Request: fold
Amino acid sequence: MSGFRVKERRLVFQRVTKTSQHCCVPLCANSSKYNSSISFHSFPKDMSVRAEWIVRVRREDFTPSKTSRVCSRHFQKGDFVNNPGKLRKLKKGAIPTLFSWNDFQIPAPRASVWERRPRPDSPPPPVHDINSEEEMELDTLAPDHDYCITPTTAMVADQLAEENDTLRQKVKELELHIEALQLRSCFGLKRFAGSDEDIRFYTRFHSYDHLMAFWRLIEPATSRMIRVTSVAREASASVAEKTTANRSTKLLPIDELFLFLNYLSTGCTQRELGHRFNIHRTTASRIITTWANFLYCVLGAICIWMTPEAITANLPPEFNDYADTQVIVDCTELRCQTPPSLVLQSEVYSHYKSHCTFKAMIGMAPHGPLTFVSALYGGSISDRELFRLSGIIPLLCPDMAVMVDKGFRVENLVPGKLHRPAFRSNNNQMAAQDVLETQSIARLRVHVERLIRRVKENKLFDTVIPLSISGSINQLFTVACILSNYQNGPLVKDWREH
Reply:
C-alpha cells in the first residue's frame, strides 16, 4: 500500500479551490492567475534579511504574513538558483532591488505568433483612369446591384407599400377584435350599452338613455355613499379615511348600480353575480346591501305624494266620473322562505296565498305613477290593519277620495270619500246601479294591478324570498317600487300627453 498514492476523500459539497498569489509591492499588479512565467516568493525567516525586505518594499505599517509574496520581477537574474526544470528559488540572502520608484521598467510582453510570423508585402493598388473607372463601375455594379438601377425598383416598392398597408389593416382589425373580446369577458354596463333590449332585461329601464339619465340624477350623491363595510368604523374614521374607503372598490360605481339592478331584475343568486362580475360572493352581497340602503335614502327623500291640483291637471278622461280620486290602493304579497320558528310562521303565514309571505300596500295616482308604498309586514295581517299602519291616513284630506278593493273595510279610517265595489247583502240580488258602479270601479282599479305587475317583473319578487336577505328586503322592495316611475312609460298609451 505504500507504493500507491491514496486520493483524499472529500464530501460532495466540499469544493477544492486554488487561490491565486499576488505581489505585495506597491504599484505592482502581478498575479499568478494571469502570469504563469512569474514566480512569487515569501518573506525569508532570517530576521535581518526579512527586515531588509520590509524596508525595500516601502509599505507603511506593514507586517508580512504567511501569504505575503514578492514577485520575481523585483529581483536580479543572479539572485536565483540555476535549477533547470525545477521550481525557481532565491539564493540565500537575496534582496529585492527592482521597483518602480528606482526607474525599473517591466519588460514588454513577448510578441504573439501572428506578429512574429513573416509575410510577403501586399501588392500596390492598381492605378486607373477616372473615365475608365466610371465605365468599369457601371459594368461591374449592374449584375450585382440590379435592383438599384433596373426599372422594376418602383414595382417592388409599390408591392411592399401595398403589403404594409394590408398588414396595418389586419393589425387594426385584430386590435378591434381584441377590444371586443375584452368587452365580452367583462360583464358590465359598457358591454350592453348598444342593446336596449339587453338593458331592459338586466335593468328594467326602457333604454340605455333612460338609464344614463337616471344615473346623472344620482351620481352627485354617490360621493357621500356609506358602505356596509365601513359602518363599523364610521365613528372613529376621519373624513379622509372615509373618502379613501369609498373609493377603494373593485367595480366602478355605475357598474355597481348595474349589478344591483341586475340582482333585482333577474333574481339570480349572489354567487352567480360574483361569477359574472368577477368578484367574490361576499363583495357582491355588500354591494347589493350598500346600494339598497343608498337608493332607499336618496329616492325616499323625494316626495312622490302628489297634490290634488297635480292630480286634477293630469286626470285621464276615464276618471271623469271619479274626479275626486286621489289615490288607488291595493295590497300585494311576496312569497318568502318558511322560518324555522313556529311563532314567526304564524306571523308571516298567509291564508290567502297558503304560504309564508311579506305583505305591502301600494298607492297609485289616477294617471299611473306610484305615489305611495308602505313597509313590508307579515302575511297574516289584514288589509284593514295594513291600511291603518301604513301611514297613508295622515296624507288624506276630507276632499280626497280613495279607490280600494272589496277587502278594504276602511270606511271609518278614511277622512274623505271611499270608492269601493258594492257588496250583496242578505243574499239578495245586487241592484243594477251597484252592478254598473262595481264594473266601472273594477275597470279603473285594474290599473293598480298593472302597476304591481310592473314591480313584480323584477324576478327577485317573483320567487321565494330567502330569509338571508330578510334584513334588507324592505329596502329592496321600496326601491324597486320607486324605480318603476323612472324605468317605464305611462300605463296606458293614451295617457302619454297627460
In short: Confidence is low (pLDDT under 50) at residues 1-17, 140-147. Residues 189-300 form one domain. Residues 153-185 form the longest helix (33 residues). The longest strand covers residues 325-335.
